[in-house]
Amino acid sequence: MQLSKFTDYTFRALVYLARHTDKLCTVEELATYLDVSEHHMKKVIHQLAKTDYVLSIKGRSGGLKLGVSPCEINLGKVLRMTEETGNMAECFSRGEICKHVQGGCKLKGIIQRSLNKFIEEFDQYTLEDVL
């Protein structure tokens, strides 16, 4: 499985914020340091700011910081929040493209169980574990 850029940027932004708890960070700072577009980073921060993971402080002296301790940020939960994990193969959402799906395709079950194991592995770790 390949993680989306959005998930990659989310993980990297969280690591950066966890390593810079002594100050408020900006979207521009994150984008520059992580070498990603500011537009993409704004989307990432918008999603994270909807959770307790990141606090977004408005105003002239505002910025971003972690909202909870790194030990409280479960990587599996972050992965579920950022990835559309329900449709790993095209046939998951469009059964009409494959004649075998109607006949009880066993490959779909294997793919789904593998994906579940992949996510369960992320469930074993927190942000603190990767710092």
Question: Key terms for this structure?
Answer:
131 residues, mainly alpha, Arc Repressor Mutant, subunit A, 2 strands, elongated
Q: Your description of this structure?
A:
This protein is 56% helix and 6% strand. Strands 1-2 form a two-stranded antiparallel sheet. The chain has eight helices and two strands. The radius of gyration is 18 Å and the shape is elongated. Helix 1 packs across helix 3, helix 1 packs across helix 4 and helix 4 packs across helix 7. The chain is mainly alpha-helical. The protein has a single domain, classed as Winged helix-like DNA-binding domain superfamily/Winged helix DNA-binding domain (Arc Repressor Mutant, subunit A), CATH 1.10.10. Strand 1 and strand 2 form a beta hairpin. It comes from Zhenhengia yiwuensis. Its cofactor is [2Fe-2S] cluster. This is HTH-type transcriptional regulator NsrR.
Helix and strand arrangement:
Layout: H1 5-19, H2 27-34, H3 38-49, E1 54-57, E2 63-66, H4 75-82, H5 90-93, H6 99-102, H7 106-123, H8 127-130
Antiparallel strand pairs: 1-2
Q: What is the structure about, briefly put?
A:
By secondary structure, the chain is mainly α. The chain contains eight helices and two strands, in the order αααββααααα. The model has no long low-confidence stretch (mean pLDDT 90).
The portion of residues assigned to helices is: 55-70%
Query: How many domains, as an integer?
Result: 1
Largest sheet geometry: 2 strands, antiparallel
**Unreliable spans:** none
Structural class given helices, strands, pairing? mainly alpha
Q: Between the first and last Cα atoms, what is the distance in angstroms?
A: 23 Å
